[in-house]
Design brief:
Blueprint (H helix, E strand, L loop, with lengths): L9 H4 L1 E6 L6 H8 L9 H11 L5 H9 L4 H10 L9 H21 L6 H12 L4 E6 L9 H15 L6 E8 L4 H14 L9 E4 L12 H13 L6 E6 L8 H13 L4 E4 L1 H4 L2 H5 L8 E3 H13 L1 H6 L6 H11 L7 E3 L4 H21 L2 E4 L1 H6 L10 H7 L3 E4 L11 H11 L4 H8 L9 H8 L1
Helix pairs in contact: 3-6, 4-5, 8-9, 11-17, 14-16
Bound molecules: zinc ion.
């Protein structure tokens, strides 16, 4: 590893604020985990998914047998079938197929090895220490263990492991991910866990909304978010701040609506916003992806957009967006009689695309004013987020704005790109020197969770 003691970007390379536990496992981790058990592991979840995504039925047992026999070609085979690269294309079924190699191994540990469910979280935390990270906020969904208490048990164990991992100056915090389709019951279960085990408050500092965002507009999270804010206000010392993935993959709606969702997520009171690609990708490029799917959106989205434009028309107009309030009011009345799920088709022209840029400017300024932080994850967006090339990556636009910004690795294991490499990528693809980039972004530790608790402690 590089000596980063004199590196002005060392604070960025050692503070990981956007990472998912499942994405942390490296090829080395897979080999260490699977080598003792490869003959017994049920690989079918991987083999079947790989068949669906790539039309091939690989034999993982044979790779691990080669590795155990000292044949490095086995390592190469594991790498080819696990690391997700640009060559795989922005295809989530292919990502899932490769990810299932890990799932098969972790399932074996959970189902067949005594205390095996501890091994995944422990190793994911260790991986950060090995890569030189000094502070990490690690998120995770609970794996589907098929038992109703699995959700609580997994988060309890992972939170405790995060607390236990804090030695020698290494600090780990844990942020459970809530399923978007059932966020309220999941949040209440989590709160119950924390009431039952108050020592876990040290480990659990927030909640995360992740996975598929399409179909889950920020307003659908309003109730649970309000409950979280109320609970935080009632007991700031035990506050859970909100992390919210938004504007990452949004082919189900217009570019205007995707921009709006990012702004609305900030208005929900999320502390940090994951990705927000919709705010930084050139609209001309964005509109050309996936056969121009952004020309279509549901009536319900269009109505939300009209309401947003009417509510924010002053700020939008100041940013250069043309708002015809009378025409919008008429359109709203016309759409009221339509089915909310009916698809509208509204093609883009040059003028409308240029207007989206002004909307992005407005949303970025509002997010800056609100104080939410954008988390940008270079490799993830290039490989999975349909950002077509490095020079088009939204991080460049974010750097030019005033928004608070951090760099995260998202899935450093399966992307084979640890945090320091992601930060170096930003340096290599911007016009800024390392020193200037640090001056622009500042120390990411200032954006870690816990601010509300600190306020409670000092008041
Ligand atoms: Zn993420």
């Amino acid at each position: 590893m590089d000596d980063i003691s004199t590196d002005p970007l060392a604070p960025l390379k050692t503070c990981e604020l956007h990472v998912h536990m499942g994405g942390c496992f490296s090829v080395d981790d897979l080999i260490e985990l699977a080598a003792p058990y490869y003959r017994d592991i049920d690989w079918s979840i991987f083999v079947d998914a790989f068949d669906m995504a790539y039309g091939l039925r690989p034999d993982p047992s044979e790779w691990f047998a080669r590795v155990v026999a000292g044949d490095s070609s086995g390592i190469d085979a594991i790498r080819r079938h696990f690391i997700f690269t640009e060559e795989d294309g922005p295809d989530f079924s292919r990502f899932q197929a490769k990810f299932n190699l890990l799932i098969a191994i972790i399932r074996h540990y959970i189902q067949h090895i005594p205390d095996g469910e501890l091994e995944g979280p422990r190793r994911a935390l260790d991986r950060h220490r090995i890569e030189g990270v000094r502070y990490v906020e690690m998120r995770s969904n609970a794996p589907d263990t098929g038992d109703p208490e699995g959700f609580v048990r997994f988060h309890r164990l992972t939170a405790q492991l995060s607390i236990d991992a804090c030695t020698d100056g290494f600090i780990a915090r844990y942020v459970p991910s809530l399923p978007r389709s059932a966020a309220m019951p999941a949040y209440l279960e989590l709160r119950q866990l924390l009431d039952d085990k108050p020592d876990l408050h040290e480990g659990i500092v927030g909640v995360d909304f992740c996975n598929v965002e399409e179909g889950f507009p920020p307003r659908s999270a309003a109730d649970v978010v309000r409950r979280i804010h109320d609970d935080n206000a009632a007991n700031p010392a035990h506050a859970l701040e909100i992390l919210y993935h938004v504007g990452e993959i949004y082919f189900d709606k217009s570019l205007e609506s995707a921009v709006r969702w990012c702004h609305e997520a900030a208005e929900l009171g999320a502390r940090r916003l994951g990705h927000c690609t919709a705010l930084g990708l050139d609209p001309v490029v964005a509109a050309g992806r996936r056969g121009g799917s952004h020309v279509r959106e549901k009536v319900s989205e269009r109505l939300d957009q009209i309401d947003y434009d009417l509510t924010h028309h002053k700020g939008l107009e100041d940013a250069g967006v043309e708002i015809d309030t009378a025409a919008l009011a008429v359109e709203r009345e016309q759409l009221r009689g339509s089915s909310p799920d009916q698809l509208l088709h509204r093609p883009y022209d040059d003028h409308r695309l240029e207007q989206v840029i002004h909307r992005q400017d407005y949303a970025l300024r509002e997010i800056t004013r609100i104080g939410a932080v954008i988390e940008s994850c270079p490799s993830s967006n290039l490989r999975l987020g349909s950002v077509p090339s490095p020079e088009l990556h939204p991080v460049h636009r974010f750097i030019q704005s005033d928004v608070d910004l951090v760099i995260g690795a998202d899935d450093p294991g399966i992307f084979d790109s640890p945090l320091r490499r992601e930060v170096e990528w930003v340096v290599e693809t911007t016009h800024l020197t390392p020193q200037r980039l640090f001056e622009r972004l500042g120390d990411p530790l200032s954006h870690r969770l816990g601010r509300l608790r600190q306020g409670a402690a000092s008041s």
